[in-house]
């Protein structure tokens, strides 16, 4: 029951930011315009990427807090204090590096009008503060995650999403569409959110600042795990974000918006994978190897049913939704790339549980090595694809990279054969939905028949997978009670 309750809290904390995004994006586009929205999107990509300067401390804190009863782990106050000090220090360094990198990109690489270039250069120093705020928030969230306090964690996620989506909208509405006001307002709001989450983390652990301690041994343990996770944090987001940098340099800010919005929608469709993997992580960290595999398989079965149905719906309705939400012209420009991105994110969902299984087992280095192996082929392919086929080329490369990531992580975690057997029906369903969505006119008779048939089959299959997973969990609980 606790896993179900935690999953519900996590789902709410993921859905509310999506609702905020759905409401705020068209409003922000209307106030700021597509070009400024594209520049803002690039600025947030910079910030998201340079959040890697938390050195994997957020994820390491989850594992160390969850395992604090083990003899190899020091007290929670030592874990918390060491992670917090390391996060602040590394965040300050990251802020300076971010400022220099973003200044060079916006001044010399991205195609910008002079007015927008002046605005963004005025706002860039605020990003120096944004990175330590982000790394500190990561540690606070790690504490809540490790303690399985998903209600508080979901509240923190909602507040942070509100800061990033509503603060620039409020600044644009009050001061006008000026990036020099939108970015500082967002950073200040996110700082306030971090303070609130920090106070919550202290209360959860029943600590105050005087009880925190810094342990060299604990810092080394955090960095040892976090170091390999940092490799993934560097390479993984870079592979996800590089497409927009190349699109901005080759096709301009408007094309970044046409790619970013469907990309974000496709990413949000994977929320169930995020929820399930996040809920499983602290639990996987404290059980033995055989129990980990059993729990991971149950989670994958439930995940397969839920996300396949969700992505099938998304494939059919992406183009009509974009036409209503933004405009018909925008839907025509972004629709096909968005549908390909949806398939890529669907595959990415099934790499999540093998990844957290490897992390919980102490094998973060294997995840990092997978990402290193994928990195250079991805960059080369992306460069040629963007220049040859534009947004569709970028989406195709993302799909292929997601497929490679799934195969590698599933193989290393020992789950590949189980997942391949499990995904036979979902693959057929997704391919049929993609074919119908791309080849048929939305609203036509054939489109309606294909959509209803796909959703009907998907619903039956999803119900069977989820119910089988819950039944298996219930049987396991009864066996443990009898024992």
TrEMBL record:
It comes from Candidatus Seongchinamella marina. It is a multi-pass membrane protein. This is Polysaccharide biosynthesis protein. It comes from the Bacteria. The chain crosses the membrane at residues 7-29, 35-57, 78-106, 126-144, 156-175, 181-202, 222-241, 261-281, 302-326, 375-400, 412-438, 444-463. It is found in: Cell membrane. The lineage of its organism: Bacteria, Pseudomonadati, Pseudomonadota, Gammaproteobacteria, Cellvibrionales. Keywords: Cell membrane, Membrane, Transmembrane, Transmembrane helix.
């Amino acid at each position: 029951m606790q896993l179900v309750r935690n999953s519900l809290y996590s789902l709410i904390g993921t859905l509310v930011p999506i609702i905020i995004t759905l409401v705020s994006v068209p409003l922000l586009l209307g106030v700021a315009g597509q070009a400024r929205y594209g520049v803002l999107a690039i600025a947030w990509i910079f910030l998201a990427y340079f959040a890697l300067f938390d050195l994997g401390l957020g994820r390491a804190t989850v594992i160390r807090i969850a395992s604090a009863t083990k003899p190899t782990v020091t007290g929670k106050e030592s874990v918390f204090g060491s992670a917090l000090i390391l996060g602040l220090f590394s965040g300050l360094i990251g802020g300076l590096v971010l400022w220099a990198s973003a200044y060079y990109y916006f001044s010399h690489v991205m195609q910008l009008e002079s007015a927008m270039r002046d605005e963004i250069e005025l706002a860039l120093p605020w990003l120096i503060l944004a990175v330590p705020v982000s790394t500190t928030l990561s540690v606070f969230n790690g504490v809540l995650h490790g303690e399985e306090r998903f209600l508080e964690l979901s509240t923190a996620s909602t507040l942070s999403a509100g800061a990033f989506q509503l603060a620039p909208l409020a600044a644009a509405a009050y001061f006008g569409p000026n990036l020099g006001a939108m970015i500082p307002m967002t950073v200040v709001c996110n700082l306030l959110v971090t303070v609130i989450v920090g106070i919550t983390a202290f209360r959860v652990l029943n600590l105050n600042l005087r009880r925190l301690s810094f342990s060299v041994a604990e810092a080394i343990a955090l960095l040892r795990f976090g170091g390999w996770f940092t490799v993934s944090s560097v390479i993984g987001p870079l592979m996800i974000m590089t497409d927009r940098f190349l699109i901005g340099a080759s096709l301009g800010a408007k094309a970044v918006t046409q790619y970013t919005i469907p990309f974000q929608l496709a990413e949000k469709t994977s929320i169930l994978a995020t929820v399930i993997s996040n809920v499983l992580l602290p639990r996987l960290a404290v059980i033995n190897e055989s129990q980990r595999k059993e729990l991971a398989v149950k989670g994958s079965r439930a995940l397969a049913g839920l996300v396949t149905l969700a992505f099938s719906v998304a494939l059919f309705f992406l183009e009509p939704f974009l036409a209503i939400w933004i405009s018909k012209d925008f839907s025509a420009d972004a629709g096909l790339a968005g549908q390909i991105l949806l398939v890529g994110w669907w595959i990415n969902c099934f790499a999540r549980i093998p990844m957290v299984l490897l992390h919980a087992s102490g094998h973060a280095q294997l995840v990092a090595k997978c990402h290193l192996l994928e990195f250079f082929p991805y960059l080369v392919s992306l460069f040629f694809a963007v220049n040859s086929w534009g947004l569709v080329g970028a989406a195709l490369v993302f799909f292929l990279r997601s497929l490679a990531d799934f195969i590698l992580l599933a193989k290393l975690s020992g789950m590949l054969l189980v997942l391949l057997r499990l995904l036979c029906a979902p693959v057929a369903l997704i391919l049929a939905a993609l074919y119908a969505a791309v080849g048929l006119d939305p609203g036509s008779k054939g489109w309606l028949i294909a959509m209803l048939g796909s959703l009907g089959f998907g619903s039956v299959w999803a119900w069977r997978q989820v119910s089988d997973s819950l039944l298996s969990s219930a049987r396991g609980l009864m066996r443990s009670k009898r024992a």
